[in-house]
Amino acid sequence: MSGLCREVITLQLGHYSNFVGTHWWNLQDASLSYDPETPQGEIQSDVVFREGQTLGGHVTYTPRLIAMDLKGSLRTLRQEGSLYDAGKDTSAVTWEGSLMMHKESPPAKNSFLEDLDKLDKGDILAEADFSSSSQPQCSAAGSVSVDTVNSRLAQVQKGYRLEGSVKVWSDFLRIHLHPRTISVIHQYNHDGEAHRLEAFGQGEALLQGSVLEELEDKLHFFVEECDYLQGFQVLCDLADGFAGLGSKVTEMLQDTYGGRGILTWGLAPVSHRNSTPMKDLYHLLNCTLGTVHLTNHSSFFCPLTLRGGLGRRPSSPTAFPYLNYDPSLWYHCSSVLALALDALTVPYRLRNNSVPMWQVADTLAVSGRKVVAAYGAVPFPMMHGSSLPDALSACTDALPWKPLSACSEPGDGRCYGQWAMLKGFEGQRLISSLAPGIKPPTPLHSLHSGEDVLASYIRSFYPTAPLALQMVSTPSKLTPPFPQIFSQSLDAQGFLQSQAPPPGLPASAVSSLPVLTSLQSGPALGTWLSELHRGASTFDIRRVAPSFLSQGPEMGDYQEALEQLRLLARCYRDDSGGT
Questions:
Q1: What backbone phi and psi angles, to 5 degrees, belong to 341?
Q2: Coil, strand or helix: which one is 337?
Q3: How many Å apart are CA 84 and CA 143, to the nearest integer?
Q4: Strand runs (DSSP E) across 325-378, as ranges?
Q5: Does residue 456 contact residue 447 with C-beta atoms inside 8 Å?
Q6: Edge-to-edge strands of the sheet including 300-305?
Q7: Adjacent-strand bridge partners of 490
Q8: Are strands 467-472 and 515-521 parallel, antiparallel or unpaired?
Q9: Which domains does the chain carry?
Q10: What is the average per-residue pLDDT within 143-168?
Q11: Residues of 214-232 as b/e, b for ≥16 C-beta within 10 angstroms?
Q12: Residues 296-316, buried b or exposed e (16+ Cβ, 10 A)?
């Protein structure tokens, strides 16, 4: 895994961002291989993973990650992790009098976490019935390899139905974290009604004192061990006070690490538990202020959500033809965003022909337009055994991707710039294999490279827009406990089947998935930003939500942010002056 690479540090700010991030890291972990005989993959894992050593001298690979969340959000996960546990030190206990101990029962672990514990102890290997030809292989860490973990957990996957047991993101975390990764904000509670991080100003005020010192210490640790740091990918909750904290964090990154890329993904769930009209108003205000400030301090800002909009009355959640996800479950909707993010972040994680973060941002964020919208076909609808021209020719009326930023495509071909990524076509043909003399059924079937096929198809919808595209054959690998939210029309590799399984027979679990994504900058974002501005401007905040201002920002700062949002929307007007 060693070699020259441009490292990336990831920051996850908020509980939903950690949901999406946990799925994303599980996807990365599933692609890791410690076998020196295995050919190097297209994705360079060292970009986001770091190598370390345990106290026993065993080599480890952990995410180069800082994850911030609130008190009570970890449940069974220890803040310092377990990789570097030296055992309990009782040498400092000198009291010889009587003691009364009050011991609280730890939260119960779900079936997946219980199996991970058994795997760490070797129990699950003894329980499973394996042939002698499949002996477990050891990694450099002296433990069971990732490939073996994947296969062993797959054997017991039939028992993983975690929809009713996932309460926090650590309930489905399958990897070890570095002791410097998790930062718990003790001033605010994850659960309950008291001491909640609900307002933008609360988050802004957090980045000082011990919280600031701890973040700077963690950043310094990860930055110092990087040889060629290209930048930071920031996942930040938009709808609560973490939007304010994220605005200050990205401002600090911009001031301290100028010249590095800062790609910020603003995350918002489809719904919140126990929401009220006042809480919905707070969510809108946080999204509004977060969009303005995160955009100011980032190389680009991309909202990611399956909501029909960021306003108080959104339309229906984004629907995908071959997914059966429950929008009310964070465990489900965050998995869809993580699959998209796995493809969206590929350009700066490639082993060969990678594109630095700053170049990706400069390609899209032209003339001050630093807000971009994401779209995704999850999965990309490709028939097993067919070709890319066949798959795209079946989508001549409309592009196969759906909105991932609550921003509908205009449908009129107007776009200032676009970056497309097709990931996961492994084993499928990229060009037509018609016999000589056979007339191609479509122009796409006459092209001689997959890149030409995809570019020609996209340009049929956006004929004049600048286009960058990349293609990676390696799919997103789905391992336990990724939710099985897929249509029975898909086979185990995520491709369309000619026939669905007969009634009564269970469909095979989907173990990988092809995904097509697009990042766009275009006039549609002007409409999206204008609607966000309109939603936050239609009421007197001093009368309707005075407590929001009492926790910051000042009224003047709030009005200034609204004006910045209005001007930002104007940047996306086309040449004719319309939005």
A1: -65, -30
A2: helix
A3: 14
A4: 373-377
A5: yes
A6: 182-189, 65-71, 7-13, 229-237, 261-268, 300-305
A7: 496
A8: unpaired
A9: 7-82+162-362 (3.40.50.1440), 375-522 (no CATH), 526-571 (no CATH)
A10: 64
A11: bbeebbeebbeeeeebbbb
A12: bbbbbbbbbbbbbbbbeebee
Q: Tokens representing 449?
A: 């490279």
Contacts of 51 (CB under 8 A, 6+ apart): 1, 2, 59, 60, 61
Under DSSP, is residue 568 helix (H, G, I), strand (E, B) or coil? Answer: helix
Contact between 246 and 22 under an 8 Å Cβ cutoff? The reply is no
Residue 445 to residues 342, 453, 503, Cα–Cα distance (Å): 29, 8, 36
Please identify which residue in the block is written with the tokens 């030190």.
Answer: 89
Q: Tokens at residue 288, please?
A: 């509004």
The structure's pTM equals: 0.90
**Between 258 and 249, residue with greater pLDDT:** 249
Q: Tell me the per-residue pLDDT of 499-555, one tens digit each, with 9 for 90 and over.
A: 777 666 566 789 999 999 999 999 999 999 999 999 999 888 888 777 787 776 778
Contacts of 399 by beta carbon, 8 Å cutoff, 6+ apart: 375, 377, 409, 458, 461, 518
Which two tokens mark 271?
A: 């719904």
Q: Is the dihedral of CA 91, 95, 98, 99 positive or negative?
A: negative
- Give the DSSP H/E element, type plus range, for residue 304: strand 300-305
Return all residues near 484 (Cβ < 8 A) that are at least 6 apart: 509, 510
**174-183: per-residue pLDDT in tens?**
999 999 999 9
